[in-house]
Write a structure and sequence with these properties.
Blueprint: H1 20-29, H2 36-60, H3 68-77, H4 83-99
């Protein structure tokens, strides 16, 4: 029987503190066949992939693709602009579209 090949990615033991309620929830889904370390590693990998995708999406998002009226509506819905400013901007946006 040949020995298992050594991994290039060494396992580094870490100690982290988590709330006991979170630990109980984790223990409730793992049985004695499952590795807590592997589960946590998989969760970290999933989160890192998500963060990477979000950064990529933020870099590739084209703000120019959002219609002007939609942007004005968003500002109004978030109470960034008042009703009178909203009305004025929507009128100007309609005039701009008509001129094009």
């Amino acid at each position: 029987m040949t020995p298992r090949p050594r991994s290039n990615d060494k396992v580094v033991p870490i100690s982290i503190g988590i709330p006991s309620s979170l630990m109980i929830r984790l223990e409730n889904i793992l049985d004695f066949h499952h590795s807590r370390s592997r589960w946590v590693c998989d969760a970290i990998k999933t989160k890192l992939t998500y963060v990477k995708e979000q950064k990529k999406l933020a870099k590739t998002f084209d703000y120019n693709s959002i219609p002007t009226k939609y942007l004005i509506g968003m500002l109004h819905a978030r109470h960034i602009i008042e009703d009178d400013t909203f009305t004025l901007l929507m009128k100007q946006a309609e005039e701009t579209v008509e001129q094009q």
